Amino acid sequence: MLDRQICMRCNARNASEAERCRKCGYTNLRPKATERRAA
């Protein structure tokens, strides 16, 4: 759902299964930081 990849170069949001950035073509993507909420 909200699992996204963030481009390390241009900070664009990409799909979680993306291999490279849709905006700049950069291959270094990081998972978007999500808070782990305590139940």
Automatic annotation (TrEMBL):
It holds the Pfam family Ribosomal_L40e. The keyword Ribosomal protein applies. GO terms for molecular function: structural constituent of ribosome. One of its GO terms (biological process) is translation. Keywords: Ribonucleoprotein, Ribosomal protein. InterPro entries: Ribosomal_eL40_arc, Ribosomal_eL40_dom, Ribosomal_eL40_sf, Ribosomal_zn-bd. GO terms for cellular component: ribonucleoprotein complex; ribosome. It comes from the Archaea. The keyword Ribonucleoprotein applies. Residues 3-32 form the Large ribosomal subunit protein eL40 domain. This is 50S ribosomal protein L40e. It comes from Halorubrum distributum JCM 13916.
